[in-house]
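Training component of the fellowship. As part of building independent skills, the fellow (R.M.) carried out the full modelling exercise for a liganded target. The chosen ligand was NAP. The inputs are recorded below so that the supervisory panel can assess the work.
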Amino acid sequence: MKFKITKEMRKITQEKELNRQIESILGKKTILELTPIIIKKADLSDKICFFFDTDDNASPFDINMAYDAGFDIVVPISKMTADQVPKLVQDAIFSRKPKAPTTFFIGGSNVKEAEKIAKEVIKSLIPPFECPVIIDPRGSHTTASAIVALTLQVARIHGFLDLSGKKIICLGGTGPVGQIAALIASKINAKVIITSRREQFVKELAEKLTIKAGKGATKIIGEVADTDEQYLKIVKDADIIWSVGKAGVQILSNKIMNQLPPNKIIVDINLVPPYGIEGIKPKHDNNEIYPGIFGIGALALGRLKANVEGQILKEAAATKGLKIYDYNYAFNVAKTLLARE
Ligand SMILES: NC(=O)c1ccc[n+]([C@@H]2O[C@H](COP(=O)([O-])OP(=O)(O)OC[C@H]3O[C@@H](n4cnc5c(N)ncnc54)[C@H](OP(=O)(O)O)[C@@H]3O)[C@@H](O)[C@H]2O)c1
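Fellow's submitted model of the complex:
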């Protein structure tokens, strides 16, 4: 009797042969188990940063920093004023789920208005729609924090325990950066003197800053200075000199620096030549510039400032609910980052 080998029979024979070969390799029958994998849907909400800037054009510096820190969308709103805050903030928060990753960043050259904006933003965050708020007009909070933290680190290298009781001269300190640096320094009990070409203005500013620094802080003093003689008289017995005046303006010349006694730390944050203190270079990082006078330049300082801002933006992007990132927070971040190095 003849068998007709069908296509089906050939397929079964081939499968049996394949199984036999697998068994000969693995030595036993294989059993494949399918275990259900539960995939948790990731939170795909975009991280949005609303950047309120008082200037005509929102700063590309802070916009880039926010993207680099991981925000998916940065919404720059320029010419921002405090009276526009409630509507914009509430439209931004009520359109998303409570605790959605929305951050408000307040910047701009008009520091007074930026402070008002910050207050309004915090007031407009209705529970449970609260969000993180970063306050850093013209980079003042992060830059000033970096100045004080780096000075503290270098001071310790030179045998100071801390900055308490140390005489700090804040040259040209009436700008946003100088004011916040003076504020932090007075809170850690340094003796701070802000210089300015405007006598009345600096005296009133020093009083206002002292009140702002609060209980337990040291009194901030305002002094007029515009000539070499005035500057020399003020900086001669300082422990620390911060040059925080306008970019591209030299405040202390070589002639003044050569007359100073040793045991001083100088910080110049001006990156635009001529620098604020003659002889200092942006890359200097605890270099001896004059005998016994050690300097920190604008690049060394700028690196820490950028790291502080980046860290704060990253933290804010991952924060749910209200958290305020101002100079108090930035100063702690700066100290922590330096301690890790
Ligand atoms: N390295 C960094 O990472 C970094 C980051 C941010 C900012 N910065 C730099 O930080 C510095 C301060 O910034 P800011 O925005 O706070 O400063 P600013 O407001 O531009 O200027 C500060 C003060 O400088 C004084 N000034 C102006 N022209 C002067 C002159 N010819 N002689 C003496 N004083 C003069 C003014 O004080 P009076 O009118 O009261 O005398 C002014 O209030 C700038 O150099 C900026 O570029 C550096």
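The panel noted the following from the submitted structure. The first strand starts at residue 48 and ends at 53. Residues 141-302 form a domain with the Rossmann fold fold (CATH 3.40.50.720).
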